[in-house]
Amino acid sequence: MAGYKKLWWTLIAILAITFGVLGYFGKEVYRVAPPIPDQVVTESGQVLMTEETILDGQTAWQSVGGMQLGSIWGHGAYQAPDWTADWLHRELLAWLEITAQNTYGQSYESLTEAQQNALQFELKQEYRNPQYDAATDTLTVDAVRAEAIAQTAEYYSRLFSDDLSLRSTRESYAMKENTLPSAERRDVMTQFFFWTAWAAATERPDSDVTYTNNWPHEPLIDNKPSAENIIWSLVSIILLIAGVGALIWAWAFLREHDEEEPEAPKKDPISLVNLTPSQKALGKYLFLVMALFIVQIFLGGFTAHYTVEGQEFYGINVSQWFPYSLVRTWHIQAALFWIATGFLAAGLFLAPIINGGKDPKYQKLGVDILFWALVVVVAGSFIGNYLAIAQIMPENLSFWLGHQGYEYVDLGRLWQIGKFLGIVFWLGLMLRGVVGAFKQPGDKNLLALLTASVVAIGLFYGAGFFYGERTHISIMEYWRWWIVHLWVEGFFEVFATAALAFIFHSMGLVSRRMATAASLASASLFMLGGVPGTFHHLYFSGTTTPIMAVGATFSALEVVPLVVLGYEAWENWSLQKRADWMQRIKWPLMCFVAVAFWNFLGAGVLGFMINPPIALYYIQGLNTTPTHAHAALFGVYGFLAIGFVLLILRYIRPNFAFNDKIMKTAFWWMNIGLCMMLFTSLLPIGFIQFFASASEGLWYARSEEFMQQPLLESLRWIRTVGDVVFIIGGLAVAYQVVIGLFGKQEAEVDAKPVTVK
């Protein structure tokens, strides 16, 4: 730690404070989660539903794909409605119609404006005022509201069946016929939808905002942004500006003068190290990465096409076998699997280098076992997803073997356990290579940071086990974002930074001191905003103002380090000029340049676009979210994994040279295709929806009427062009990797054992 004490203590202090904040306010999530009543009854005492049946409805919703078919509280897919906003609006309209008939003997639409305003005032009083008795754990509704609930439930029951009158609606929502065949399960699922809408409309005790902080925007009951929402949005913007300014000043005045760059070696030091058996065995990992990548991008095109034709693929009705909810599940899960596999392969490639150029005992066996375990988990989870959504799998097994229903953590719990055990096994393989290196003399600070990130990756995926099938959805969301945000965007980011620094140092291109200092400083900046920034996903998930305040404040700081990534991109690009042999890794370096670009644009600009509470209030659940998700997930982590694959390929096939023509096609077509996808389709649709959400309400921005208008349909068709360009680039890089793995190789160059220190 000598020489880096300030950096280490800064990082340790940041981790201690930020995880303390995350844990302290995590208790708040448990404490203030919207109550699920023991009973919902009418004033006459009729029981409409119970806590048990509401949770039964939650499991029914999970079994049909959950967040992959529409969304709840804004989290999920974007083609079908947000069921919370849609249910709430339909129930409100039903209440107004019933009350108009009872009071005036006329339909609501035929009333005068004064009469309508009077009913809307009554509506707001009825829906926003709590009718939940905490002492008896009972929610009581009057006869009119009970009838409105029944009418709305009847519509949803028909929608999720094969009722002919709603067939065109199901097509617009990309739902297959008879999505949920069991009438009993459809009935309880409507109860779960009702409860999510009740929480979104009812004010917390001693508060003037609802359990979901007045989300969604619904003018009929005066659901609008709270004062706290606006205040913390302004605070986040001010902090962003202040943070960027402070970073620039620190960069200019506080950083030490760069030490002289080391002279580049005449030959690539890593290429002089004898390949170990475990490194030679990594070829199948690279093939798996590319195979899943190709499957994923074709599934992406398939999924996008469903947003146009709904149930068909160019006139062929395939939704009964491969519905939208299934292919979207596979699309996202395949992405997570191939990106994670690329990172695991990078770690396994580094382990023998760290260990002095040799394998620990049985390392190759461990690498082979881990690979086949990955194959089993991927295949098992995909098959389970299919059986669950097809409603073939018994309902009591769906969560465990089929589909959990939660976006990014869709795989059945058994397969999730298998994935966790695989990651822990990878951790063991990595530590076997690292432990011995710590016993050798020399500076081990960079190695310590790399090791810490490996341990964090290995263990923090376990956060997904803190919720179960019937866990309250607010609590589930807290732990789910530990995986989606903290595990992926936090610890994988630190691992990537440390791994690249270690690789460039091992090549003799960067001094150990520069690599270590830069990695420690970057880790501190990432963690400072990234850990508490997890809460920016939870503004409207049944949480209170403190969660919003913490999330808005720290998520603004997440963007701060991203503004200097142009310098990182330039540094990575300029490395290829340091030595002639660097041309052999030009394309991995170009991928790392792309990572820096998309980190700035996708994670930074497009991420902050939806981060302030006032912005997310109107656009949560609209196409602005997948704009950020595609740019950040593929642009950052996808290109990073591909860069790792190409780098490993270059070393495990020493005589293979990248084909510039193929790689230019791969690199530029993927980047251009991604830009086209975002800026000619997803983002324009998102902005048009934004206007509709702000002016009419979220229900309207996601409605069949709005989403099927000719302009939006044309924009969804236009996305096909970007998808095709991207797919061509993806096929090109996969072809290059396959050639490298299976093409004819020349005699290998002489190599000798070299310990990279």
TrEMBL record:
Domain of life: Bacteria
Residues that span the membrane, as ranges: 7-26, 230-254, 285-308, 335-357, 369-393, 413-434, 446-467, 479-503, 515-535, 547-567, 587-610, 630-649, 669-692, 724-743
Entry annotated with the keyword Membrane: yes
Keywords carried by this UniProt record: Membrane, Transmembrane, Transmembrane helix
Residue stretches making up the Nitric oxide reductase subunit B cytochrome c-like domain: 37-217
Keyword Zinc recorded: no
One annotated GO molecular function: heme binding
Record-level GO cellular component terms: membrane
Annotated GO biological process: aerobic respiration
Pfam families on file: COX1, NorB_cytochrome_c-like
Full protein name: Nitric oxide reductase large subunit
Source species taxonomy: Bacteria, Pseudomonadati, Pseudomonadota, Gammaproteobacteria, Alteromonadales
